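We modelled the chain as a single entity of 110 amino acids. Its sequence is:
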Amino acid sequence: ANDEYYFMNLENYEQIAIDADLIGDSAKFLQPNIKVKVELFENKPFGIVLPKTVVLKVIETQAYIKTATAQAQSKPAKLEGGHTCQIPPFVETGDLIKVNTETGEYVERT
């Protein structure tokens, strides 16, 4: 199966198909209506440039259990698109968080 992602040129509304292999790990950060830059070589797309951060929904994480320790804690979270990262204990399933697309790390709750 040759999976492709489709992007729309916002200037002329033409659709651009890019092979999933060229998107690679960036796919986990793609959302409907996200604005990306399509990289072209000889008028053929060869990749995309994501925005520095994206907002993703927390699909699954552990409930927050308050403990007596003073150290900063984090917990794993599964986000829409399949990305996983460490988040602060106060962030819950269903929350929207901003994620750095270069590092994949939590930035803030939105």
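As a brief sanity check on the tokenised model: The mean pLDDT is 92. The chain has two domains: 4-49, 53-109.
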